[in-house]
Design a protein that fits this description.
nine-stranded mixed sheet; 33 helices; pyridoxal phosphate binding; alpha/beta; Rossmann fold; glycosyltransferase; glycogen metabolism; Glyco_trans_35; binds pyridoxal-5'-phosphate; 48% helix
Length: 817
């Protein structure tokens, strides 16, 4: 086939040109005119006009990648928590104000439109949001990177609070169509399940399988202030047989579509939990579905410009975001060895050079394992390959270690205790040339505790890459008032080089800057206050201290420590209402995993405490407690810029990094936190005097655990704490159901609480008093807030991705010239 150059309209981005584009897209894309258009139609037409302006860059980036035969990074993640795209794309293209004006000239308020866009919530929390920040940073740096994942029809559930309880409703985010994606029906791969293996000649064949097609949907990922763009490719399941026609003709309509529905279930739903694997078999199918299509796709792309696998490892880096995509390893071995007939040793050598793996948790119960029997049934060939990898690995280690059988049992890919299971993290480590933790502390503990044997065997594999966040979304987009102020004082370059924020240090004593800084924060607080009044019918005073704990509800994150302090403070205010209290609004937001009973009870407790406190006339504005429902990226963008205080109070040694801590500090909130995860590095960067650090360190937590943690003693010795806990136990906050929170009491006091809430209570309460004292002095507070923003340079995802690119992936930015 000969190809001709396409001639198309070169789009510019004046207000006038945008206005015509929107009109064109309304007419020819949406099929409506200004009279019949609904607000959603305007959003769709405007989004298409923006997308049109990204496509030429996208084509150019792809063409240059092929021309320069670059090494590409494949970032594999079961989750991408993207949020909204419209404003992000406008800011990346630098056409935000023009678009606003163009829409205004058509009689449309852009701020109304942006609120109509649904979040793409294809993730649970920090892990998925990290993947989304990384896509933004890779594109901005010009790294040839592809995100690969699943196009879930239903993303993270929507959370409502009804009578104080979490109610989950499905998130059908595609209802109104998705203008940002391009369906690619010509890109489909067969994914097999079940069946059996046979040896034919030299090779193993996997036969008698059932199958489903994986179809690609591509989303453009624009880089900021560059024409480089990347691709997020998400797979959707398509049945190989649309309809069982003979069943249909017999009148058995249900059966006629059953098989289709069953196979397409694979990409139906995101599992609402990132720490334990639920719905096990379907979850395993999802993991395999996604990595199989991805490995087939990267082989196809490589083979477009190469005829042998000789340079495969020089052209491809595969990154595993946690263990969920680990089946990519046996799948790529299978494709290379069984299908492309590459010798086993050569295939394994390339895999070891191509793969890298990020660990996200130290909690042993959250490390993923799969039942050997289930794997044998669903993926028999992969299980054989895993056994073979294990046999070779253990043989090598046995020879080196003088056959230390205890150690061999510990590091084996197969857990032989009880029901045999495959340890996915072990497979990831054995196949990867680099394994990283996500903060300095986490990386240290990882090699000291859960992966100690591996760190002795492969010391050169283990490394740290501290997480980061994209300043484009989390400052430029989320806080227009603060980013405009920063632009005015130090220019706009901080968006691409966050270390530029250090220049704000010179302004720390500039009274006019401090005043403007306080005013920016105040505007963000007012915006939030108005939204709370509209949507939750709660009124709060924007001049109160806004104290935020926003993150998934989990015992290790210790929302309970925060609630206990709220209760103690409530009792203190009631005892001395006339004292000079610093007015506070304590806000919580976060979802509880559907099956996590305790987390749901914690939400209930927050609701009951809030009902009591907010309606107590003795308390008034001195203390308010608010639970903001449906935490997700858009809620985070609204709420984080309004924070004065950031609660990062996990038990030391449990939070791998945290990224919420970074977003809040970047927005000028002061952190009250433990020395855990990235809090430690934030503390080094912004100065301990600008944070409120409290509580046991990770080493002290270990020591306390070894010595024997006795919470009942703490309960008995601290009268204020005892009263608060007794109120929880006896139904003071839940008179309609006095025993509702009895389990919380017993968990904290009698059952040895593994998160040691009471051990840190006294120090936490003292730190909260220090917070009040600082807040009473607005100048001191603002100086600390500015120091926080100024110190956040190193927490840009651009720094993080730079480290991955140089130290792990060995990829270079594309030459865009
Ligand atoms: C940043 C972010 C998280 C992670 O927050 P942590 O406090 O680090 O747990 C979770 N959910 C959303 C929507 C986020 O934006």
């Amino acid at each position: 086939m000969t190809t001709v150059d396409l001639e198309f309209d070169q789009l510019n981005s004046t207000v006038d040109a945008l206005r015509r584009s929107i009109s064109n897209r309304m007419m020819y894309g949406v099929g409506k005119d200004a009279v019949t258009a609904h607000p959603h139609d305007w959003l769709h037409a405007a989004a298409l006009a923006v997308r049109d302006r990204l496509v030429a860059r996208w084509m150019k980036t792809t063409r240059l990648q092929y021309e320069q035969d670059v090494k590409r990074v494949y970032y594999l993640s079961m989750e991408f928590l993207i949020g909204r795209t419209f404003t992000n794309a406008l800011l990346a293209l630098g056409i935000h104000d023009q678009m606003k004006e163009a829409l205004a000239s058509l009689g449309v308020d852009m701020d109304v439109l942006t609120e109509l866009e649904p979040d793409a919530a294809l993730g649970n929390g920090g892990l998925g949001r990290l993947a989304a920040c990384f896509l933004d940073a890779m594109a901005t740096l010009g790294i040839p990177g592809f995100g690969y994942g699943i196009r879930y029809e239903y993303g993270m559930f929507r959370q409502q609070i009804v009578n104080g309880e979490q109610v989950e409703t499905p998130d059908y985010w595609l209802r109104a169509g998705n203008p940002w994606e391009f369906p690619r029906p010509e890109i489909q791969y067969l994914v097999h399940f079940g069946g059996r293996t046979v040896q034919r000649d030299e090779h193993v064949e996997w036969i008698d399988t059932e199958h489903v097609n994986a179809m690609a949907y591509d989303t453009v990922i624009p880089g900021y202030a560059t024409s480089a763009t990347n691709t997020l490719r998400l797979w959707s399941a398509r049945a190989t047989e649309e309809l069982d026609l003979s069943a249909f003709n017999r009148g058995d309509y249900r059966r006629a579509v059953d098989a289709k529905n069953m196979s397409e279930n694979v990409s139906r739903l995101l599992y609402p939990d990132d720490s334990t694997s639920a719905g096990r078999e379907l979850r395993l199918r999802q993991e395999y579905f996604f990595v199989s299509a991805t490995m087939q796709d990267l082989i196809r792309r490589y083979m477009r410009t190469h005829s042998t696998f000789g340079r495969f490892h020089e052209k491809v880096a595969v990154h595993l975001n946690d263990t969920h995509p680990v089946l990519a390893i046996p799948e790529l071995m299978r494709l290379l060895v069984d299908v492309h007939h590459v010798p086993w040793e050569r295939a394994w050598q390339s895999i070891e050079q191509m793969f890298s793996y990020t660990n996200h948790t130290l909690m042993p119960e959250a490390l993923e394992t799969w039942d050997v029997e289930m794997l044998a049934r669903l993926l028999p060939r992969h299980l054989e390959i895993i056994f073979e990898i294990n046999a070779q690995f253990l043989k090598r280690v046995g020879e080196q270690s003088g056959h230390d059988t205890e150690m061999i049992r510990r590091i084996s890919l197969i857990d032989e205790y009880g029901q045999r299971r495959v340890r996915m993290a072990h497979l990831a480590i054995v196949a990867s040339h680099k394994v990283n933790g996500v903060s300095k502390l986490h990386s240290q503990l990882m090699t000291r505790d859960i992966f100690a044997d591996f760190a002795r065997l492969f010391p050169e594999r283990f490394t740290n890459v501290t997480n980061g966040i994209t300043p484009r979304r989390w400052l430029a987009q989320a806080s227009r008032p603060l980013s405009a102020l920063i632009d005015e004082r130090i220019g706009t370059h901080w968006r691409s080089d966050l270390f530029d924020l250090a220049k704000l240090r010179d302004l720390a004593d500039d009274a006019s800057f401090a005043e403007a800084f306080r005013e920016a924060k105040r505007q963000n607080k007012i915006r939030l206050t108005q939204r709370l009044a509209q949507q939750l019918k709660v009124t709060v005073d924007p001049d109160a201290l806004f104290d935020l704990q926003v993150k998934r509800i989990h015992e290790y994150k210790r929302q309970l420590l925060n609630v206990l302090h709220v209760i103690v403070r409530y009792n203190q205010i009631r005892a001395e209402p006339e004292k000079d209290w610093v007015p506070r609004v304590v806000m919580f937001a976060g979802k509880a995993a559907s099956a996590y009973r305790m987390a749901k009870t914690i939400i209930r407790l927050i609701g009951d405490v809030s009902a009591k406190v907010n309606h107590d006339p003795l308390v008034g504005d001195r203390l308010k407690v608010v639970f903001v429902p449906n935490y997700g990226v858009s809620v985070a963008e609204l709420i984080i810029p309004a924070a004065d205080l950031s609660e990062q109070i996990s038990t030391a040694g449990t939070e791998a990094s945290g990224t919420g801590n970074m977003k809040l500090a970047l927005n000028g909130a002061l952190t009250i936190g433990t020395l855990d995860g990235a809090n430690i590095e934030i503390c080094d960067a912004v100065g301990r005097e600008n944070m409120f650090i409290f509580g046991h360190t990770a080493d002290e937590v270990d020591a306390l655990r070894s010595a024997g943690y006795r919470p009942r003693q703490l309960y008995e010795e601290n009268p204020e704490l005892r009263v608060a806990l007794d109120q929880i136990r006896t139904g003071f906050f839940s008179p309609d159901d006095p025993l509702r929170f009895a389990d919380i009491f017993h968990t904290l006091v009698d059952w040895g609480d593994q998160y040691m809430v009471l051990a840190d209570f006294a120090a936490f309460a003292q730190a909260q008093n220090d917070v009040d004292a600082r807040f009473r002095d607005p100048h001191a507070w603002t100086r600390s807030a500015i120091a926080n923003v100024a110190g956040m340079g190193q927490f840009s995802a651009d720094r993080t991705i730079g480290e991955y690119a140089r130290g792990i992936w060995h990829v270079k930015p594309l030459d865009m010239s």
